[in-house]
Fold this sequence. Notes:
By secondary structure, the chain is mostly helical. The protein has two domains: 13-106; 140-373, MetI-like fold, CATH 1.10.3720. Helices cover 80% and strands 0% of the residues. The model is unreliable at 1-12 (pLDDT under 50).
Amino acid sequence: MAEKARDKKLGQGGPQGVLAFVCAFAAAVFSAWLGYLLGACVGTVYTARLCATVAPLVAFPIFFGLVFSRLRDRRFSESIGNALIYMILTAYLLAVVLPLLWVVFTSFKNSEQIFKAPYAAPSSFSEAVSTGSQNYQSAWVKSHFKDYLFNSVKVVSLSLLLILAASVPAAYILGRFRFKGVRALLVYFLSGMMVPGALLIIPLFFQVTAIGQAVTAAMGIAGFDARSYKFELHDTHTCLVLLYASGCIPFSIFILTGFFRTIPSALYEAAIADGASEFQAFFHVMLPLARSGIIAVAIFNFLELWNEYMMALVFLNSESLKTIPLGLAGVSIMANYKTDFGLLFASLVIAMLPSLAVYVVLQKRLVRGITLGAVKG
């Protein structure tokens, strides 16, 4: 019995060694990456390279010996999977947060400091405040980011109102009622998600032009002077709002349809039994219950439309009508010629702050809306 136990224990050495090697290798890679970042923050690029070289050489044997020696403990063996998961999640968290912090720190430095020590923090607090205030003032006033921000807020807000006004009632009908052709109608709406947006730019460009010509001709027939009352959708926020709404409505209907199906039918039936009409049951019962799903859809669409670039680039020409992505692209091009990268990073911070604020404030409703909408009713 003792020999069998010993053979069994020796036979487990192979898998334990492989698992210990994987854990130690992951820790070494993570320590090299973290050592490079910390070395760059406190010193030069050579310091960062030295830390990135020494850190894995120290971390690998330590983690290998620690993991391999404790893998024989059953409780430790059961928790090693959770430890790996937390390690991966921690690495992902740092990979997301550290670049954002680097962008914020870099926005408080001038171009000379960025080229001299790109990953280092600002040398002093007073100098960082002075340089940062200049960068943000230049981005806000001289680069017209206040106008770009107002245009983005205007376009995205109107687009969201139009998207929700069209998709919420449609999703309610498709999710709560059964009638002939409901599946075909749902497939018709979802087919809008199957076509890449880049393929629609050229057809939409000619269609927008044709609509403007048709409306101008109709106004001429009605007696208006075509030269004085020429209707044009190009280079207007109206055109962009209509394009954004039409592109996001299929996705919104898809999410909200699944969400409305998760709402218990007993609540709707109780409202109808109490004498409520269909409109009253929708506005006073079903709509408040679907608030989390509506907010989740609004957040998804907001993040997509706030960063949308291609449609705005094609259909907007005037400088006064440009949105945040177009203005940021212009500042990026200008920074390459003027070597003002502090201005560029300050513009990046201004552009990403609204998205971060919306997500942080409404993240709980976003997660709740996604999870409830994923349950089949």
